[in-house]
Each structure stands twice: as C-alpha cells, then as structure tokens.
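Worked example 4.2. Below are the chains of a multi-component assembly; read each line carefully before continuing.
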Amino acid sequence: QVTLRESGPALVKPTETLTLTCAFSGFSLSTSGLCVSWIRQPPGKALEWLALIDRDDDKYYTTSLKTRLTISKDTSKNQVVLTMTNMDPVDTATYFCARTVYVWGTSRPNYFDHWGQGALVTVSS
Amino acid sequence: QSALTQPASVSGSPGQSITISCTGTSSDVGSYILVSWFQQHPGKAPKLMIYEVDKRPSGVSNRFSAFKSGNTATLTISGLQAEDEADYYCCSYGGYSSVIFGGGTKLTVL
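Applying the procedure described above to all two chains together yields the following structure tokens:
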C-alpha cells in the first residue's frame, strides 16, 4: 500500500523559509521510473506543480519559482524535503507531495498516481 | 508556461453525460500523450482518473473516458452520479521535465 504524508509548519512569517517533509511508504525512490513531486494549491485555486526529484538525484523545478525552491531526498528514510525561501502571503496554500511515474526510460513525468493528504501552510505576520 | 485552459464550471443532471475540455498549446498538450485528469472533492487530495490521454487506472469507473485532438484534451463523464460532483483538473507534460495543470472545472450534478 502506497502512502505519503506531508508535515511542516502550519504558519510561517513573511520572508521566512518553509521546510516541508514528505514521508512515504509502499515504494522506494531507488526504483527506476518513480520519483516524488511537490504540488501546491492556494485556497480555492488551481493546482500548481512545483518540483520533482528522482532516484538519480536529478531535480526539476517550475520555472517561476526555481530560485526559491530546493528539493532533496533521503532514500534510506523514504523522505523528500522541499524548502521554499522568502515566503510571501501569496504562497499560502495546501502543499501536496505525490508519487510520480516517469515515462519508462526517460525523465519525463507521466502522471501522479498517489498523493498525500496535503499540508496547509499559511503565510502571515 | 501558462496554465491549461478549462471551463470554470459545467453541470449536468443524473444520468446525463458531460464533457470538460482542456486546451493547451503545441508545446504541451499538442506534443505529448502525457495528459492526465484528476478528480478532487472538497478538502481532499486529487485522485488520478485518466493518464496518457485515455487510460484509466485500476478501480476508476468506465463512465470516465477521455481523448485528445490537437491541442485540446477532453474528459467525458457518462451516466452522471451525485458522487461525481467535484473539481476536475487536467494536467500535461510541458517539456523540459515540467508539468502544467489546468485551471480546474467545477462539476455540479443538478
């Protein structure tokens, strides 16, 4: 059974750095073709893909936030961590991590087949 | 990359069929079969309903079908049921290992 769970602060102040952890089970990041993504959703708004990391430690980021995001992994702990610097109230959102399946033999993300329940992060002073 | 374009809302009566369109560009939807659809109920995580344009994951009802033509992908839900009322999002590979989501469509079952 594949499960993912996000954890992190519910409230951060403007300009602070957000650190979120995705703890997962039921699969390994050392498995070819699998990776983990972070996706966020502001209240009442659409989903936005943020970043992904794969077993080779290759990392990909959405262009608009690339300078503020860092994704990392601890394969032995089955965890993926996302940091976002210089938080702003517009970054208030539910942050999801999701298991991501690559197109076989490529680094093209294909689909997100398992999601965590999400972590709501509010940015406010 | 801009978000894929979806209608803000659609509605239908129980038993009817509805379609939700998802329009991208020749750089995303038009270039790849890597189009997927998600269902999201309020307060819940998205659920994968369709991947690779028209494939259903195990356990997803065959009332859900989809196809793509050019830069537009379309989701069809037939035999509408009350439980189908949710938000629906399309998603496409956007090149250079990136992903783009649509703006979302709220489905109301009348």
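Take a moment to check your reading of the output against the notes. Chain A is about 0% helix and 55% strand. The mean pLDDT of chain A is 96.
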